[in-house]
Write a structure and sequence with these properties.
The chain has a 5-stranded antiparallel beta sheet with strand order 1-2-9-4-7. The chain has a 4-stranded antiparallel beta sheet with strand order 3-8-5-6, with no helix packed on it. Strands 10-11 form a two-stranded antiparallel sheet. By secondary structure, it is α+β, with helices and mostly antiparallel strands. It contains 4 helices and 11 strands; from the N terminus they run αααβββββββββββα. The protein binds fe (ii) ion. The site of fe (ii) ion has 3 residues, from loops. Fe (ii) ion binds next to loops.
Length: 178
């Protein structure tokens, strides 16, 4: 049985202790270890979108619904993040800034996530995300700050040059409108 208030309380308790990101990761791992409970609480992932489950200055919990075969350009978060997939797949490409051209990035690695997998990112991580399957992927994303209230960067997918992150554009992409 999934309980959003309990998840939020567990994340808050994890934040209060030492090794907070590690502990939040454990909380998310527990949640996505029972995908059926999450789906019965949040609904079947049928349409793309970003649902805010909790938002405060030091903690954001969102239900991310990746449209079939959706690709999101490289971006950073400026805060730690924990991602747990409860339905479908997420492929993350990890990027790093070029030492001699700090506005540009190069690919540095990849992490594939399936149902039940969890990934933690430090605040400097740059990633892009692919939903590689022809149905919606559902994931719980937890951030150590106000995800919607912080200026961050995205990188143009063609030039790989840094520019300000456009949240409205990203939300339109999730809705299939951009
Ligand atoms: Fe992200």
């Amino acid at each position: 049985m999934f309980d959003l208030d309990q998840l939020t309380a567990d994340c808050r308790a994890a934040l209060a202790g030492e090794r907070s990101v590690h502990n939040v990761r454990e909380v998310v791992a527990r949640a996505v270890s029972d995908p059926a409970a999450l789906i019965s609480a949040l609904g079947d992932p049928e349409r793309g979108g970003v649902q805010t489950l909790h938002r405060s200055s030091d903690l954001t919990i969102i239900n991310v619904l990746w449209r079939p075969e959706m690709i999101l350009m490289p971006h950073n978060h400026e805060m730690w993040a924990v991602i747990g997939v409860y339905s479908g797949r997420e492929d993350n490409i990890l990027w790093r800034r070029l030492p001699d051209d700090a506005d540009r990035i190069e690919a540095a690695g990849a992490k594939s996530l399936s149902e039940g997998d969890v990934l933690a990112f430090g605040p400097d991580v740059i990633h892009s995300v692919i939903n590689p399957i022809p149905r919606v992927t559902g994931a719980i994303h937890i951030y150590g700050g106000d995800f919607f209230g912080v200026a961050r960067s995205e990188w143009d997918p063609e030039s790989l040059r840094e520019r300000p992150y456009d949240m409205d554009k990203v939300l339109r992409m999730f809705a299939g409108q951009g």
